[in-house]
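Q: Hi! First time doing this. I have a protein sequence and I read that you can turn it into a structure. Is that right? Here it is:
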Amino acid sequence: MLRRLYDWVLHWAATPYGTCALFLLAFAESSFFPIPPDVLLIAMCVARPDRSFKYALVCSIGSIFGGCLGYLIGWQFMASVGIRIVDFYGLTDKVAYIENLYNTYDAWAVGIAGFTPIPYKVFTIAAGMFKINFTVFVLASMASRSARFFLVGGLIYLFGPRIQRFIDRYFDLLAVTFTVLLVGSFVLIKYLF
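A: Yes, that's right. Below is the predicted 3D structure, encoded as structure tokens:
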């Protein structure tokens, strides 16, 4: 079933509705849909590298708005809708752990989840459930989701279609490495100043 969804998502890249589909996919993935928008973003950027930054922007905006929907689900509809989404991904037992991350790291938890392959939708829903500061949530989402999608778009813009295989193969490793470097830099800055 997941493969059929993946193929269905990819087919939008070859249609005139690709940009709208990219926005909707990014929106849905941030709150409930299982296929990440990177799949369609990469396909569209490879087809038109000159539009890579436009596609990254569309993807970022859709994802941020979708994250706000996830926050709303957790804040107002956790018992009826949110718990079903979390159950679907088999992460019910991780909700208490996510609460601890929010209590300890606040915006960093959102930022790391927004950039890495961790299911962002679970963090958006949990953010609403635990009522973390909405402004902090939006700002962290804007920074992390934009960094993720503009990194992909920028690499394809600079290196063209040949970078697609590299991104597909090493995206998780690249995301984790970037996150470790980012967090490490802030920790270093904190201790130096």
